[in-house]
Every structure is written in C-alpha cells, then in structure tokens.
Amino acid sequence: MSDVALAALSDVLRLPNLIASMMGVFFGLFIGASPGLTISLGMVLLLPLTFALSPVTSFCLLLGLYTSGMTGGSISAILLNIPGTPSASATAIDGHEMAKKGRAGEAIGTAVISSFFGGMFSLGCLVLIAPAIAKFALRFGAPELFALVLLGLTLICSFGQRSIIKGLISGVIGLIFMTVGLDNMMGIPRFTFGYVELQAGVSFLPALIGLFAIPQILEGIVIGAQVIPKYEAKISGLLPRFKDITQLFKTMVLGALVGTGIGAIPGAGGPIAVFLSYDYAKRISRNRTLFGTGLAEGVAAPESANNGVAGGAMIPMLTLGIPGDPITAILLGALMIQGLTPGPLLFQTNAQFVYSVFWAFLVANIMTLFLTLSTIKVWVRLLQVPKRILLPIIAILCIVGSYALHNTFFDTGVMLFFGLLGYFMRKYEFPVVPMLLAIILGPALEEHLRISLIISQGDPSIFIRHPISLVFIIISLISFIGPLLKRIRASEEE
Amino acid sequence: MIAKKFGYGMFICVIILSFSVAAFGGGKYPSKPVKFLIPFGAGGSADVMGRALAKGTEKHFGQPFVPINKPGAGGGIMYTALKSSKPDGYTVGWNSTSVLTCTNIGNVPFMYDAFEHVCRIGFTAMPIAVRSDAPWKTFGEFVDYVKKNPAKIKIGNAGTGSATHLTAVLMEQELGLKVIHVPLGGKRRIPSLLGGEVEVICVPLPEAAPHVAGGNARLLVMPTAKRDPAFPDIPTFKELGYPIVIELFRGLSVPKGTPKSIIRKLEKAFKKGSQEPSFTKIAKKRGFNISFMGRKKFQRYLEDQNELIARAYKISGLVK
C-alpha cells in the first residue's frame, strides 16, 4: 500500500472522523427506516453541518448516512412491508414474507450481510477499475438507456406469477398512471384536468407506500385486527447461520455485479438494479418456484445490488465528476462546497482525499454491518406488538411519510388511492409488482425513447444501430418471449 | 428552600413576560418563524442556495426561516401555494427564472405579476459549452460551421421551455441558425456532451465549470449582461452584438397584498443576509453571482426578462 493510502487511512481513523461516521450511520439508519424520509433529504439536512467540517470529516458523515440509509430502507420493508426507500421495494417481496413466518431476524441479517457484501464489492471496483468502468458507462446514451429500461420492464412477465395477462394489465395500468402530470420533455400538462397539483404527477414513493402498506391495514379492518394471525410469537434463530450465508454467495455476487454496473451508468438509477438482480437471482436459482414466498435469496439479491449501486454511483462521480444517481449528485455538491473539483484531476491533485473517501466508505460499511446486526433483537421485537396497535401506527407512518416527501397532501391522496387500488388488486389476484415496475420505470422509458428519436430525427433504427442497445433489446425479447413459450408448451402437454 | 422559592418566582416572571409579549407584540412583525418555500427538490441548486440564504438572513431578521421544498410542475406547485397563502409576511417564496417560464408557458393560470417581488439576490450564468476536442475554438467558428451545416448540430437543454432551451432558441433566431434542440433534462446533460451524444449544451455554469477545469469541455459564449469574473476570456452575446441576456436569477417573492412595511423589512434583511460570509462562501463555490437588486430595480428587470422569455416561447412555437 502506498504512503498516501496509509496516510489517508490514519486520517479516517482519527477519533472525530470515526465519530462523524458513527453519527452518519445512526442518522442514516433512522432516515432509511422512516418511510418518506429519503436519503437525499437526510443529506440536505446534514449538508449545512459539513460547511464547518473538513472535507474528510464531512465525507465520513455523508457516506455513513448513504450506506446505512440503503440498509435502513430494507428494515422497514421487511418488518412493516413499507419500503423506506424505492431501492428497498424488491426486498419487501420476500423479506416481508419471511417476517410473517417468524424469520424476521434472519431476513434482516441476510439483508445486512448482503448489503455489506455489495458495498465491499463495489468499493473494490471503485478502487481497482474505476476509470475503465466510467469510460464504458459514458457510452450509455439515450438509446442504450431506453433498451436497459425496456429490459427492466420485461420483468413484468416473470413477476406475473400465475397469469401473464393479469401481470400485463397491471403493468399497463401502471404505465398509464405515469403519464399524468407535466410531460418531462415538453412541459405540457397531461390528464391534469386544470389542477396544478396534478402537474407534479404521481410521485413513485407515495405510490409504493400505498401499494405495499395500505392493503394490509385494510385487510386488518375487513377481517378484524384481533383475528388476523399474529406473527410467529417465537422468533427462531436471530441471525442467519454461516452455512446459509455461504449458500447465498452466488446470489450476492450476482447482485453486487448488477448493482455496481448499473450504479455506474449516469441516469439509470437504483430501483432498476434491484429488480434486475432479483429476477436474475430467480433465474439462476434452484428454488425458482419458491421466490416470493419468503426466500433468503430473494432478500440477498436486491440488497447486495442496492449497496452495490452506492459504490457504483461513486465511480463516475469521482473519476468524471458526473453523479451516478441523485444522492451522488448531492455528494458532488458537497465536494464543490469544500472547494474540491471532482473529475480526473482530483486523483492527481488530491490523491489523499480520494483514498480517504475509499476508507470512509469502508468504515461506513463495517459500522452499518455491526450496528444493524447488534440491534436486530430490538427491531424484531416490533413485530411482537399486537396488530391492533401496530396497524394504526403503520397507517400514521404512511400518511406522515407520504406528506413529508414533498410537503403536500396531494401525495397523501396519491398514497391512499394506490392503497385502495392495491387492496382490490390483491383481492382479485392481480399481481402488484408489475404495476410497481411500470411506475418506477415508466417515466424513464418514455424520456429515453423520445430523446433517442429526437437525436435520430425520428429514425427508429437508432436502437439497432447502437450495439449496446441492440444487445439489450435482444435480451429483452428473449426474456419476454421465454416465459410465454414455456407456458404454451406446458398447456400443450396438458 | 430559598433556591426553590427563587425558582418559582423566576417561573412566574417568565410566564408573565411571555404573555405580555404575546399581548403587546401581536402587531409587531416578525413575531414568529417565516415559511421559506423552495420551488425545487432537496439537494438541488435552488435548495442549497435557498437554505444557505435563509440561514444567513435569520440573525438580521430576528426570526428563523423554515425551508419547505415544494417541487413539481417546473416550479408551478410552489408558486400556486405561495399565491394562495396569507399576505401577512409569514410565507416567502424563493423564486427563480421559473416564475417567468411556468407562467408564460401557460401551465399556471397567472403571470409573474400575481406576486409582490421583494428583491433579487443574484444569478447563475448559462453558457454555451462544447467538448474540448470540438473543432471550434471560438463562437465565431461555431456559427460559421452551423451556417454551412444547418440542422446538423444538436444542442442539449434541461427540457423544452426551460431557460437553457430558451437561450438556445434565442441564439438560433438572432444569429439565423438552424439546430436540433434535445431536451436532455438536468441529470443527463453533462454525460451526453462528454459521451458525444450531443455536440453542444446550454448549461448552468457551476455544472460546466469543473469539466472546463478538468480539460474535457470548453465554453464558447455567455448569455449574461457582463463577462463572468471566473471566465474573463469568454465573450457575452451582448458584446458580440446580439441582444440576448438571459440569466438564471434567484430572488424573493411574497403574495400580492402583503403590506409595504413588511416587504421593506424583508428586503432589508435579505440584503444583509446576501452579504453574510456563510452565504457568500457557498455562493462563490457554486458559481452563483451575488448581485442584489432592490424591489424597484428587480421589478424592471423582471419586466425585461419576461418580455424576452415570452418572445422566445413565440419563436419556438410553444406558445401561440
């Protein structure tokens, strides 16, 4: 190890910096676990503090928040079925099922350990091959991003569970909802009926909270909260066993690869990474059919991906001065306030600071791992609260969370609307995840499609002429037609 | 025992005092915290600068400002909320060029004159930038090339109808050029330029500056009134003979009907706040030029900018 790297390490390990990391991790866990409080908001709240701190100390604080915020989001997803951050929505699918079966501790443990793995993997990429990845990621223009998002949307088919038709219906309705509001490119209001509030469109976090959390409350009211089965009172095995973790290794590597890769592409975003990773884990798994019923692999894949995104998004930020996602955009702002210019020059002029960022990210990951693992007992106890008390608390969290995001009650209305919708979808066995995917990916799909066509002056062959885009389109076709063919063959055999 | 009695006495005094403040201070402004509405989301430039200004102004104002983000509809959500709040001085809006864009394009049913404007704090330049390996060394060379190759060059902007788009539209019109406008959005404009998807972008200076310093991008021209102190070599449209001055300004507005005395108090406090070192330091690092304009001067400035923006919308065909 070079002297610069060692000097940076000893700087990061100074007491004030360790305390800053610790504070960031605590705060991040809280922010991540509270629905509606996003990591971006947490960073903005801490930003004024950093003006008075040294660059290294402020990065210890902010990276602590970033790392543990990602992990904290999965805790509320697992325990309460409320994704604290959009990236945690895939974790809720299997994580909450595990919690229902009394395996909440194991689910959180798996989530935390996979997050740690994803974080470490992406850090490795950041240290070793950042410039190469960043250069490749720059080749993702509008057509490439369109094809990537399209690939994400084809997952609708594999999340359609029993009925592909119902899955497609759910997905298309989701896409239609996302056309409400000011059109991103031309600024023209669509389906707003003259209401300015509707111009902001459907924000996806309130929609997510509604779709996931409200149906369980409504079911509680309908069935009667006293009668709904309590979660398993005895919580078996707080931590996942070592053997279980080694079995998840393959899944975690996959998640980390997908997360780091997609994180490094400016404008692609975390949610697409977690769903792609979930789906690929399902495809390579021997327990394919058990996904969605509370499988540890279903938690490990999206969790290693979302912390992979954290390191991945820092690759273009540090090497090119381009943020990979909205959170790194704020980090970039923090760097500039400190008077440092991110980009290729940063490695030459401030090498020690760059190493400090690496070390601070490592410290943040280790702290998050230990802090969460040691508090699992406390978290899990939340589930032993009787449902007639727990459900109203969840309802309040949903309302406050959806309001806090943009400070408007309109978003609370959106949340309740999707809650009702989600309840009836569940009742009539329409899968919710395809709608979720459409809500998350719809705006990006439209935006990149239209930008591509503006660039090509209306020529659709742009998607085939660009090699990366062609590859993604072919994979999309395969993953769209594959499940259909399988089903046709199955029905022929019957 | 005595200490205890003393404690009670103090307690009663405090209660009486606080009641009397409430009773006699009711008419005095400001007597409670003021809502500070921000038209864009947490973490963006409007947010960071707004929060820093609010913090820096507090001690000159005597009451805290509470920053509240109301993003959406290109600022329209915040302006609508501001318009419907009580004109009592306890809600102020952190405006920007968006008060002219979202109104002129017709997305909200009012114009910029639906508010009382307190003051302008400053502005950010939106230069025209190219990659450093682009063949054009000067703006003149670029213009010659575009004239010879009409409808070839792609110019990225933050979205159709945004200030960056309008700047490019005015440039097209004034210089008789023909280009392709690409509404890349805020996130993707720098990657698009560096990755070669578009040849040119119109972009807020703080976003471009690091890439100019890093040797990956070059600025051609500034649409500001004067040359930027950080880039004294880059000419303005104005000195090249084209009447294009569009700045991404930021300032403060209050609902119509707010008493003049309150507006003057806010104006005075924000003027001092804009000179507070904690604010100026951040402003400098984020490429925000502090250039305060009082209420009257800001009013005239808004009229000019509004006329220019309305014209650009007509040219682009967005508004008939």
Commentary on this structure:
The complex is a heterodimer of chains A (494) and B (320). Chain A is an all-alpha fold. Chain A has helices at residues 3-12, 15-33, 39-50, 55-80, 89-100, 104-137, 142-159, 164-177, 196-199, 204-223, 242-247, 249-263, 270-284, 296-320, 326-337, 344-349, 351-381, 387-406, 409-427, 433-455, 462-465, 467-493, and strands spanning 181-182, 189-190. Chain A has one domain. In chain A, 75% of the residues lie in helices and 1% in strands. In chain A, strand 1 (181-182) and strand 2 form a beta hairpin. In chain B, 43% of the residues lie in helices and 18% in strands. In chain B, the strands form two sheets. In chain B, strands 2-1-3-10-4-11 form a six-stranded mixed sheet, sandwiched between helices. Chain B has helices spanning 2-24, 45-61, 76-83, 98-104, 139-148, 163-175, 189-195, 205-213, 260-273, 277-285, 295-316; strands spanning 34-38, 65-69, 91-96, 115-124, 128-131, 154-157, 180-183, 200-202, 217-221, 248-255, 289-293. Chain B has 320 residues and is an alpha/beta fold. Chain B has eleven helices and eleven strands. The chains are: A mainly alpha (494), B alpha/beta (320). At the A-B interface, helix 3, strand 1, helix 9, helix 15 and helix 20 of A face helix 2, helix 3, strand 7, helix 7 and helix 8 of B.
